[in-house]
Write a structure and sequence with these properties.
- It is built from five helices and five strands, in the order E-H-E-H-H-H-E-H-E-E.
- It has 208 residues and is an alpha/beta fold.
- Helix 5 links the parallel strand 3 and strand 4.
- It is globular.
- The termini are far apart.
Length: 208
Amino acid sequence: MDKRKIWWRHILVNNAAVNYNLGSNNSVEFAQQVVESNYYGTKNMIKAMIPVMRTSAAGARIVNVSSRLGKVNGRLNRIQDATLREELINLETLSEELIDSTVSTFLQQVKDDTWKSGGWPQTFTDYSVSKLAVNAYTRLVAKELSDRPEGEKIYINCYCPGWVKTAMTGWIGNISAEEAADTRVWFALLPDEAITGKFFAERRELNF
């Protein structure tokens, strides 16, 4: 790829995602598609774009649209395996292999029809697992990019837009798409604050 022919690479927003459940439904019929789109799609786009991103004094920006449903230590919707949670939250043990292994284990249990006893999140399970992987990968990439020299910085973060009135929620969300985009635009256009590897909603930092 000829870098000289690409001019739109200061900011990357990964917004593409799918969810096939509504209301109290929790089917995993399309789990493979959900994980492929939401996690692997995001990861592959990041890997493809980092080499051709143009930085500036304020640094280039990557913003991953994620969800509170993907919180490792969520109160009501989290992985039950405490050891796995610790490995995913600890930057010393977090790795791409661990993230991939986690989603692969989930997908294998879906195929084996054993996922219900696997200790996975109980709300929109496939979507939650995919967004947990996005959150973890965001933190991992932030760590990998942290030693880039001044003038070549790339800052990567993720955020939850909330329950938005879109086709994905059956148009029953409680905020508009315009309102949901606020934090995304704010993150992408921060002038010179070196925020990276963080999770936000409504411009407020959340725990992973």
